[in-house]
Amino acid sequence: MSVHIAAKKGQIAKTILQPGDPRRAKYIAENFLDDVKLVSETRGILYFTGLYKGKEVSVGASGMGAPSIGIYSYELFTEFDVDTIIRIGTCGAYNDTLKVYDLLNVEYAASESTYAKFAWDIEEDRLSPPGNVFGLLNDTAKTLSLNLIPTTIHTSDIFYRKSQELPEIAKKYNCTAVEMEAFALFANAQYLGKNAATILTVSDVIPTGEFITADQREKALKPMIELALETAILM
Ligand code: HPA
Asked: d(Cα 59, Cα 52) in Å, to the nearest integer?
């Protein structure tokens, strides 16, 4: 049991899938895992452990933003001996070279966030996914014939803002899309010597306003969930 996760030690698998939304964690547990057990529901942030193709895997939410994923991923790594976190999320595309439903593998997460600097004295404003999961996801995508696009994204602390201009850091690193968690997850994993990756489905294209509707989302996220699970069982 940790400050924010009520599971007992040993109730969380070595590899965990981490969506932002607790209900998505529940959907994955109920539709993709066997012998599932709810192991924590503190603050409504649900964690489940079950079997995928006979191998133990957990799935649990991160909440939104760097502070939230910073807390949950730290406690998973340090209190539950988790080795690998695969974040599965959605993102907004910054330009129309990406389309809704495109699947991205985050090669770099660039951010103005002070999280890495003030938590761990990590000075870089662009982090890569620590460990070998990034590469394994690319390999698994090939075997599943999925088009997984390696790219640089912007991890932003801001969802609503005054200016519609592309943020400076997104210009600096040619970021193709924006989400709100990968940078903090990578910072924690880097500092703790753990494995982490982030795969994202494009849910909206910011300049055109195109987006995946709420009822299209479940189906839209299926390839990403299968890619994460097929990779998790290789760890
Ligand atoms: N901004 C930040 N995070 C997001 C977005 C966005 O437009 N879309 C999905 N996650």
From this structure: 11
